[in-house]
Design brief:
The chain has 200 residues and is mainly alpha-helical. It has 8 helices and 5 strands. The chain is globular, with a radius of gyration of 17 Å. The two termini are 17 Å apart. The chain binds zinc ion.
């Protein structure tokens, strides 16, 4: 299952299209501070671990800057690709987190090598899901939709299994969409972008 995702270039292109749709929505709303026009001002990025499946769109995190001279503030749209400042893509942080409990020591070692992970990274991500993610507004707003409640100690796997997608790809997109508000500190509006599994 894992391999298929790590090599699926089309899936990463689809995630980029979602990010573009989110960015278009953010840009059309204008600067949240002064209402000014937002100009494109992407950040260069160099995501670790998946190079072969990624195209040039992954070298940039979409972002905007207010065009008004006296404002100039940043508006970085939420992203389903880049998880804040983490150097690994959100999809890796979700999949490795969901998989790691069932891995044999051998498979775990392979995964660490394949994705160019730092050894302490997996433990740090586990802590991130159970402390940072659960405290964020995106989870505070969504958690009530799950009955019985999602077991915090089994995040993110428990949540991935509970999302109402047509297949794992779709559920992964829904989870990344749910997490997206946590990926930026410079824009905090509510998004209308929906994920259409027909287009995947
Ligand atoms: Zn502004």
């Amino acid at each position: 299952m894992c391999q298929a995702f790590f090599n699926d270039a089309r899936f990463y292109q689809f995630l980029f299209q979602i990010d573009q749709a989110i960015a278009t929505e953010v840009q059309s709303g204008g600067c949240p501070h002064c209402g000014g026009v937002l100009h494109s001002a992407a950040y260069p990025r160099k995501p670790r671990g998946l190079q072969s499946a990624l195209d040039g769109s992954y070298a940039r995190r979409l972002s905007f800057c207010c065009a008004r001279q006296e404002c100039r503030r940043r508006s970085t749209p939420p992203s389903v690709r880049f998880l804040g400042r983490k150097v690994y893509l959100g999809v890796i942080v979700v999949l490795v987190g969901a998989l790691e409990q069932g891995l044999t020591p051998m498979r775990r070692k392979q995964l660490i090598e394949q994705l160019d992970l730092w050894p302490q990274t997996i433990a740090r991500w586990r802590q991130w899901w159970r402390e940072i993610f659960v405290a964020n507004r995106c989870w505070q707003a969504a958690r009530g939709e799950f009955m019985p409640p999602v077991a915090i100690g089994q995040l993110p796997g428990a949540l991935l299994g509970r999302l109402n997608g047509v297949d794992l790809r779709h559920r992964l997109c829904l989870l990344l969409r749910l997490v997206a508000p946590i990926t930026t500190t410079s824009w905090s509006g509510s998004l209308r972008v929906r994920i259409d599994p027909q287009k995947m």
